[in-house]
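Case study 2.
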Amino acid sequence: MKQNSFSATTARARQRGVSLVIALIALVAMTIAGLALIRAVDSTNVISGNLAFRQASLNATDVGVETALTTLGTVVTTSLDANYPASCAAGACNYYPTMQVIDAVGMPTSIDWALVPTTVVDSSYSVQYVIDRLCTGPTPVTDIATKCMNLSNTTSGSKKSGAVSFTSATQVYYRSTVRVTGPRNTVSMVQTLYAR
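Prediction:
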């Protein structure tokens, strides 16, 4: 009888030890799962932040497009066949009278963005722009019809049947490339075509 009691006590003691080991394993597994969850949430926050910065820098390109359009008005009346500003070095100008060489994705390769003038927006976004006239050949470009991409002599003002027909002067195309650098080295580039 005494031996049966001893044997039952030993068995209970062994069971308590097994429960402790199982509890420790479960605790370690839950800790690892908790750390993985924290890491996943942290990564999601970083990705969301990067997307927000990218979208904000894309929105800031509107400033560059508007500034480029304003500058184009000045350039067309003052220095159409010369780089602008007048004393800028090659690769550091805001305007080029001829088409610049582009890479596979359509971005000008001759531009040194470190030298192009910068406008700061909201103290976080650096906006730069470059305009190139879509003409080829040496300057001054005198043969607009064959040397430039142009919208020549539109013969009708509307495609509607019976609409009034207009005749327009030849308009030359200009390409503006806007680059915005934002927080976390976010870079957005946008190109716009103007006909003028």
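The CA atoms of residues 107 and 167 lie 34 Å apart.
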